[in-house]
């Protein structure tokens, strides 16, 4: 049966990095017989420019009908003056919400070839392998009421609501415990239970769910300490469970431990394992259009798609091995190049990975 993938390149470097992931997919199709077809759709600023909305109904319909979704990135300064409801980011948030992709997996793995690209000392980061499990469809990103108003003093006010129901916490906790079970059986839940009632409930429910996983060692950490510990001694973590906003922030921090934010892929899964796959970084407006962005996070997101949604661990491993081989051969985009080493552009990195795949 042919697998259908909806491809949403988005904005900024989105189209550049997605093009490289599609080269890899093409190679799997032609050289390894992967039965897959792709269909493109607009999302974010590109969709707003074409249709006046960042989240066209045709895009949602295509994603619903597809077996999986590959997304580049959305956003950029061009669309910042728009009302919130029309911003590119609303397209991405709308997709996550409409497709009920509550479980966001963000693996931070430092490849041995990139130890010197990390800003931390080799002994602190080498061998790093963390899985951040981020709740993706609730919390302060979606809580109501939200908005802006004029208060009684005539001042402008902005407000958002941090809210989680017990069932929302329970389902993401189950995802995290199940993942921890398949790894080193250590789960650290991140909260701010010393200050926020919502995250006090978070901790309570995670402890309750933990009773069903006695083989997993559960610990808790306040988010401010967690951000410090990630930089002080990141290898103490195996799986980190976070709410929506803390996970957004901590995953950018964890990305840097791996050498660059251009290295971190992600999977956003629904309760049945159907998902959307995207790098954790954004549209990088500062380097868009220059052909220098690192496509590896997107290519590794494709590998995650094959593993988590398409039940094809063999193809996923082929991709991951090809990435390692290209790194072994010395290919480096600017973000992961050490001083004095040669740099290649986005397309050359994609080509090197495809060549390694072909040679496998
Ligand atoms: P960003 O992640 O786009 O960029 C942060 C920094 O990292 C920049 O210096 C950028 O050049 C660099 N960078 C990011 N990806 C890279 C790559 N693949 N290779 C090399 N360098 C890379 O974050 P930002 O600048 O805060 O946000 C820019 C826009 O992207 C905003 O509109 C934001 O809302 C959006 N955004 C979208 C997503 C998404 O689509 N999932 C994620 C984050 C930010
Ligand atoms: C991410 C991004 C998004 C988020 C934005 C663009 C909505 O930063 O995927 O990490 O905050 O979740
Ligand atoms: Mn983010």
Automatic annotation (TrEMBL):
<keyword id="KW-0100">Branched-chain amino acid biosynthesis</keyword>
<keyword id="KW-0464">Manganese</keyword>
<feature type="binding site">
    <location>
        <position position="96"/>
    </location>
    <ligand>
        <name>substrate</name>
    </ligand>
</feature>
<dbReference type="GO" id="GO:0003862">
    <property type="term" value="F:3-isopropylmalate dehydrogenase activity"/>
</dbReference>
<feature type="binding site">
    <location>
        <begin position="76"/>
        <end position="89"/>
    </location>
    <ligand>
        <name>NAD(+)</name>
    </ligand>
</feature>
<feature type="binding site">
    <location>
        <position position="224"/>
    </location>
    <ligand>
        <name>Mg(2+)</name>
    </ligand>
</feature>
<keyword id="KW-0479">Metal-binding</keyword>
<feature type="site" description="Important for catalysis">
    <location>
        <position position="192"/>
    </location>
</feature>
<feature type="binding site">
    <location>
        <position position="252"/>
    </location>
    <ligand>
        <name>Mg(2+)</name>
    </ligand>
</feature>
<dbReference type="InterPro" id="IPR019818">
    <property type="entry name" value="IsoCit/isopropylmalate_DH_CS"/>
</dbReference>
<protein>
    <recommendedName>
        <fullName>3-isopropylmalate dehydrogenase</fullName>
        <ecNumber>1.1.1.85</ecNumber>
    </recommendedName>
</protein>
<keyword id="KW-0432">Leucine biosynthesis</keyword>
<feature type="binding site">
    <location>
        <position position="224"/>
    </location>
    <ligand>
        <name>substrate</name>
    </ligand>
</feature>
<feature type="binding site">
    <location>
        <begin position="282"/>
        <end position="294"/>
    </location>
    <ligand>
        <name>NAD(+)</name>
    </ligand>
</feature>
<dbReference type="InterPro" id="IPR004429">
    <property type="entry name" value="Isopropylmalate_DH"/>
</dbReference>
<dbReference type="GO" id="GO:0009098">
    <property type="term" value="P:L-leucine biosynthetic process"/>
</dbReference>
<keyword id="KW-0520">NAD</keyword>
<feature type="binding site">
    <location>
        <position position="106"/>
    </location>
    <ligand>
        <name>substrate</name>
    </ligand>
</feature>
<dbReference type="InterPro" id="IPR024084">
    <property type="entry name" value="IsoPropMal-DH-like_dom"/>
</dbReference>
<feature type="domain" description="Isopropylmalate dehydrogenase-like">
    <location>
        <begin position="4"/>
        <end position="353"/>
    </location>
</feature>
<comment type="function">
    <text>Catalyzes the oxidation of 3-carboxy-2-hydroxy-4-methylpentanoate (3-isopropylmalate) to 3-carboxy-4-methyl-2-oxopentanoate. The product decarboxylates to 4-methyl-2 oxopentanoate.</text>
</comment>
<comment type="pathway">
    <text>Amino-acid biosynthesis; L-leucine biosynthesis; L-leucine from 3-methyl-2-oxobutanoate: step 3/4.</text>
</comment>
<comment type="subunit">
    <text>Homodimer.</text>
</comment>
<feature type="binding site">
    <location>
        <position position="134"/>
    </location>
    <ligand>
        <name>substrate</name>
    </ligand>
</feature>
<dbReference type="Pfam" id="PF00180">
    <property type="entry name" value="Iso_dh"/>
</dbReference>
<dbReference type="GO" id="GO:0005829">
    <property type="term" value="C:cytosol"/>
</dbReference>
<keyword id="KW-0560">Oxidoreductase</keyword>
<dbReference type="GO" id="GO:0051287">
    <property type="term" value="F:NAD binding"/>
</dbReference>
<feature type="site" description="Important for catalysis">
    <location>
        <position position="141"/>
    </location>
</feature>
<keyword id="KW-0963">Cytoplasm</keyword>
<dbReference type="GO" id="GO:0000287">
    <property type="term" value="F:magnesium ion binding"/>
</dbReference>
<keyword id="KW-0028">Amino-acid biosynthesis</keyword>
<feature type="binding site">
    <location>
        <position position="248"/>
    </location>
    <ligand>
        <name>Mg(2+)</name>
    </ligand>
</feature>
<keyword id="KW-0460">Magnesium</keyword>
<comment type="similarity">
    <text>Belongs to the isocitrate and isopropylmalate dehydrogenases family. LeuB type 1 subfamily.</text>
</comment>
């Amino acid at each position: 049966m042919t697998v259908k993938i909806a491809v949403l390149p988005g904005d900024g470097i989105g189209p550049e990095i997605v093009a490289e992931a599609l080269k890899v997919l093409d190679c799997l199709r032609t050289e390894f017989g992967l039965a897959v077809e792709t269909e493109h759709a607009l999302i974010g600023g590109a969709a707003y420019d074409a249709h006046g909305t960042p989240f066209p109904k045709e895009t949602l319909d295509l994603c619903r009908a597809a077996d999986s979704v590959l997304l580049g990135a959305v956003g950029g300064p061009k669309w910042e003056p728009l009302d919130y409801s029309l911003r590119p980011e609303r397209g991405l948030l709308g997709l996550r919400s409409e497709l009920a992709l509550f479980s966001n997996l963000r693996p931070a793995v430092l490849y041995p070839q990139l130890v010197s690209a990390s800003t931390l000392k080799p002994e602190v980061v080498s061998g790093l392998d963390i899985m951040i499990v981020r709740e993706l469809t609730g919390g302060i990103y979606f809580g109501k009421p939200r908005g802006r108003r004029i208060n009684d003093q005539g001042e402008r006010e902005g407000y958002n609501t941090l809210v989680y129901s017990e069932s929302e916490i329970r389902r993401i906790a189950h995802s995290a415990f199940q993942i921890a079970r398949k790894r080193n059986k250590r789960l650290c839940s991140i909260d701010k239970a010393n200050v926020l009632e919502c995250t006090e409930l978070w901790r309570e429910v995670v402890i309750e769910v933990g009773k069903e996983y006695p083989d997993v060692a559960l610990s808790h950490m306040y988010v401010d300490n967690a951000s410090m510990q990630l930089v002080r001694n990141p290898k103490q973590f195996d799986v980190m469970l976070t709410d929506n906003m803390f996970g957004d922030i901590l995953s950018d921090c964890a990305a840097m431990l791996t050498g660059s934010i251009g290295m971190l892929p992600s999977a956003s899964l629904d309760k049945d394992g159907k998902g959307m796959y995207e790098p954790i970084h954004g549209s990088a407006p500062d380097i868009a259009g220059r052909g220098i962005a690192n496509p590896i996070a997107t290519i590794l997101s494709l590998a995650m798609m094959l593993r988590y949604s398409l039940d094809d661990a063999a193809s996923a491993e082929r991709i991951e091995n090809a990435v390692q081989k290209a790194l072994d051969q010395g290919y480096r985009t600017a973000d992961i190049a050490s001083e004095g080493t040669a740099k290649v552009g986005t397309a050359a990195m994609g080509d090197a990975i495809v060549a390694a795949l072909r040679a496998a």
